[in-house]
Write a structure and sequence with these properties.
about 575 residues; mainly alpha; MetI-like fold; 2 domains; two-stranded parallel ribbon; 24 helices; 6 strands; about 70% helix
Length: about 575
């Protein structure tokens, strides 16, 4: 026992660590190990046959190729969009900079699943854009422009870029803000400028931040389930996994696909960590863009406002179309609706299933946010205030869900918890697993938020409280938590808001109508023949967007510029 004397261990700490280990073992490692076992086992023997069948199938090969191409194009276009935005935002000071910086982040929590409904209405062959061009005589009725391209492929790419660029923007702008301006000045004094200055000085220093954002964008785009479903683009890996759930017990191809996705995400994260851990990026001093930034003149300010406003407007246009469609009484072969109505919102309140879906989403999201708050605060407190064995392992476990897409976790829960226990089997009652899946995937955000707060709160105040005889719990409640409350509120609001319109978990785990969250109810409504179903689905999406927008505004108000810390891999 002497080797444990250097650690701050008591009964409550040991109990919590044991409980946390059990939680991760049951809800993270068990479903993953179950999928691995099923993917590599045939008739009780180890086999790679399923992966051979996967690569031999023309459908699966095409799905893999499409998913890789979607993710690669999304990452490339997101990079091309985010790099100049981040450069201008960190390089120039201008009126309205804070407002535009906040608005740039709004698309981050507006899931492309909802925006896809509006984009489909606008960019269909006889959608609003083509009808407007026909009205202006720029496009013929016989040959409308196929904006969505290849069965919706380019529509998916465009929507993912507009949804995911804030994540790249946050990572790159944070990296650019930390570049020591003295290095740029030294390079300029030696004659470097423009592209050469960016390539030799700025780019190498921002690579870790850029690659962190790129990995998240690539994985997110590769595993996006909702957008391809809305566009009816089925030949991608996520949709193939979704379709395989129906015959999970007879067709093991789904296990092979999920294990492939799991391996891909883990390899990308490990490569990024290994690649940049082996290189050194230290600077003599920390960059301070406030001192090195340039004051934009009137013409530059006008240009920056035009660029940023155009990007924000374009990113929010699909969601604006959803709002318009929710208010449309009749919208057929016209640029804008010919009749307007609030009837779709009235039908939301008069339909048991739509009301229950809103109530379910609020319930699931609130419980998952509360669970994340308890786990996240305790983990962050142990990491910053206690000396515990295997602290680095605990930190890694808390951040591990970043490398596990919701598609993988949800599939694992359906496959691994197919028991004769109703409250644990998602086919009968998915409530527990929905709450846990929402919580597990958002835990890194609250851990990082609380961790940053504890690091900034002086430990001297806690020591003074302890010297005056206060118990550790009383010190935590009276001293520490009030000091980090802003971080906790921001982190909790974000975990709640992300869970509200989570797509993969809801579509896969909620199999009975009484348990549908908002996203599953929207998908169900869009599949109905009823002409009003699409309008009701959009109205439901507007309700979800309103809740998310309010959540983001609260989090941005409380946390300000530190919001970027929550989205760094």
């Amino acid at each position: 026992m002497s080797r444990f004397k250097k650690y701050d261990l008591n009964i409550s700490t040991v109990v919590f660590l044991g409980g946390l280990g059990a939680f991760f073992a049951i809800f993270l490692f068990y479903p993953v190990s179950f999928m691995l076992k099923e993917a590599f086992r045939s008739e009780g023997q180890f086999t790679l046959r399923y992966f051979g069948l996967l690569l031999a199938s023309p459908l699966q090969r095409e799905s893999l190729a499409n998913s890789f191409l979607l993710a690669a194009l999304t990452t490339l276009l997101t990079t091309l969009l985010s790099l100049p935005l981040a450069h201008w935002m960190t390089r120039y000071d201008f009126r309205g900079k804070t407002l535009l910086g906040g608005l740039l982040l709004v698309p981050m929590i507006m899931p492309p699943f909802v925006g896809a409904i509006g984009l489909r209405q606008m960019l269909a062959k006889f959608g609003s854009v083509n009808l407007l061009l026909m009205k202006c005589g720029l496009v013929s009725t016989a040959h409308p422009i196929d904006w969505l391209g290849q069965g919706g492929f380019w529509g998916i790419v465009g929507l993912q870029v507009l949804n995911l660029y804030p994540i790249m923007f946050l990572n790159v702008s944070a990296a650019m803000a930390n570049v020591d301006p003295a290095l740029r000045e030294a390079a300029q004094n030696l004659g470097a400028s423009g592209w050469r200055l960016f390539r030799t000085i700025t780019l190498p220093l921002i690579l870790p931040g850029y690659f962190a954002g790129a990995v998240i964008v690539f994985i997110w785009a590769f595993t996006d389930l909702g957008t391809p479903l809305i566009f009816g683009f089925s030949r991608v890996v996520p949709v193939q996994i979704f379709d395989s759930i129906a015959d999970l017990n007879t067709n093991p191809m789904g296990y092979a696909l999920v294990v492939f996705v799991l391996a891909l995400t883990l390899v990308l994260f490990l490569v990024s960590k290994k690649l940049f851990a082996s290189q050194r990026y230290e600077m003599m001093s920390r960059g301070h863009t406030s001192g090195a930034s340039l004051q934009a003149n009137r013409r530059q300010t006008l240009g920056l406002w035009l660029v940023f406003s155009s990007v924000i407007g374009l990113a929010l246009l699909p969601h604006a179309a959803v709002i318009v469609q929710s208010l449309a009484g009749r919208w057929f072969f016209t640029v804008l609706p010919s009749d307007w109505t609030l009837g779709h919102f009235a039908e939301l309140g008069g339909h048991n299933l739509t009301v229950s879906s809103i109530r379910n989403s609020l319930f699931y999201s609130s419980l998952s946010a509360l669970l994340d708050l308890v786990l996240g605060v305790t983990i962050a407190w142990l990491l910053t205030r206690k000396r515990i064995p295997l602290a680095s392992l605990l930190d890694a476990l808390a951040m591990l869900p970043l490398a596990l897409p919701g598609l993988v976790i949800a599939f694992g829960y359906v496959a691994g918890f197919d028991f004769n226990i109703s409250w644990l089997n998602p086919r009968q009652n998915p409530v527990l697993l929905l709450v846990v899946s929402y919580s597990v995937r958002r835990l890194p955000y609250i851990v990082r938020s609380a961790y940053a707060g504890f690091q900034q709160a002086s430990i001297a105040l806690e020591e003074a409280s302890a010297n005056l005889g206060a118990s550790p719990f009383r010190t935590l409640r009276k001293i520490t938590l009030p000091l980090v409350m802003a971080h906790l509120i921001a982190g909790t609001v974000l975990t709640f808001s992300f869970a509200m319109l989570e797509v993969s978990d809801g579509l896969i785990l909620a199999m009975r109508e009484q348990y549908f969250p908002i996203t599953k109810m929207i998908w169900q409504l869009l599949g109905r023949i009823d002409p009003n179903a699409s309008g009701i689905a959009c109205a439901l999406g507007v309700v979800g967007m309103a809740i998310l927008t309010l959540s983001l505004l609260i989090a941005a108000k409380v946390m300000g510029r530190k919001m970027g810390q929550l989205f760094r891999a």
